[in-house]
UniProtKB/TrEMBL annotation:
This is Reverse transcriptase Ty1/copia-type domain-containing protein. It holds the Pfam family RVT_2. Residues 2-109 form the Reverse transcriptase Ty1/copia-type domain. Coiled coil: none annotated. It comes from Volvox africanus. It comes from the Eukaryota.
Length: 341
């Protein structure tokens, strides 16, 4: 029906439809039976609403303040938009009996490494899978600060232990003290990325890839994920992390193009000089000749000028948050750097 009105689906996201109406781009985001409408002109929005109301049995709820669990707040004076999930957090704290719990400053103790060893958890009494599932939605949508902790907990869904349950409650206690934390976006259209990895930090000696992309001062894409193969060095782990993060950079370029945002070369900040040298050199070396060819496409994208590698110090690396549990000082730095206020 939307296509019959002149809307075209985005190639980057099939749930996003775009149309030019009276010279103004109009965007409709569709999720099941919920629509989100955006345009610079209120007059054009009124015209499109009228078309939609004629085509669908729907209600006009006015300016967006709540959408799919997101709470959206605008500060028109400061020209900022904040996205939070206060209500969702409050609901899960109440559901799992943590409403009156003491808060904590980080979601997981620094340098804590969860393992499969430990006393088994009685899941008929302690709803471990349900807690982690609820936290996963939050970690994916608006709270990158809990991504590493929740990702670590999710690896033990089959056979959780009491240690895992205590760690999950630690994340809930952190949320208790940060319910109002959300991502704040300001003006401009500057895109930049950070990528990082640890080395053999997880069971099976596998490393964790972490990356984040910022737009207008706030995080818009992030990931904390185990690498598919074991890395034999820090540089190799960083190399694979960069390749994984560049895939999302290319997708992000397409999506922003459909949204009318011009994106040039995307700067990618990495704290490994060895990794940057491997990516910018076309020569095969003993460090890279054994790597799967799928990781080498990153070199091509850099050569084509779509991505530019930038060295940053470890102290400035925001993606560090997605590869390991951090001490309070560095954790707070990463939280602020991703626009979480």
């Amino acid at each position: 029906e939307l296509e019959s009105m002149g809307f075209k689906p985005s190639l980057a996201d099939p749930g996003l439809f775009v149309k030019i109406e009276n010279g103004e781009p109009v965007y409709v985001l569709v999720y099941v039976d919920d629509l989100l409408l955006a345009c610079k002109s209120m007059a054009v929005i009124g015209q499109v609403k009228a078309q939609l109301l004629r085509a669908f049995a729907m209600r006009d709820l006015g300016e967006t303040r709540f959408y799919l669990g997101f709470e959206i707040e605008r500060d028109r004076t400061a020209r900022t938009i904040s996205v939070t999930q206060r209500r969702y957090i409050s609901n899960i704290l109440e559901k799992f009996g943590m409403k009156g719990a003491n808060s904590r400053s980080t979601p997981m103790d620094a340098n804590l490494h969860l393992t499969a060893e430990g006393d088994p958890l009685d899941t008929s009494v302690h709803p471990y899978s349900e807690v982690v599932g609820s936290l996963l939605y939050l970690a994916v949508c608006s709270r990158p600060d809990i991504s590493f902790a929740v990702g670590s907990l999710a690896r033990f869904m089959a056979k959780p232990t009491i240690n895992h349950w205590n760690a999950a409650k630690g994340v809930l206690r952190y949320l208790k003290g940060t319910q109002g934390l959300g991502i704040k976006f300001g003006g401009g259209a500057h895109v930049q990325g950070y990528c990082d990895s640890d080395l053999a930090g997880a069971e099976g000696r596998r490393s964790t890839t972490g990356f984040v992309y910022l737009l207008n001062g706030g995080a818009i894409v992030w990931s904390s994920k185990l690498q598919p193969t074991v890395a034999t060095s820090t540089a190799e782990a960083e190399y694979m992390a960069t390749a994984a993060s560049i895939k999302d950079a290319l997708w992000l370029r397409h999506l922003l193009h459909d949204l009318g945002v011009s994106v040039g070369v995307v700067p990618m900040k990495c704290d490994s000089t060895a990794c940057i040298a491997m990516l910018e050199s076309p020569m095969s070396t003993a460090r890279t000749k054994h790597l799967d060819i799928c990781h080498h496409f990153a070199r091509e994208r850099i050569e084509r000028g779509e991505i530019r590698m930038v060295h940053c110090s470890t102290a400035e690396q925001l993606a560090d948050m997605f590869t390991k549990s951090l001490p309070k000082g560095k954790f707070k730095f990463c939280v602020a750097g991703m626009g979480l206020r």
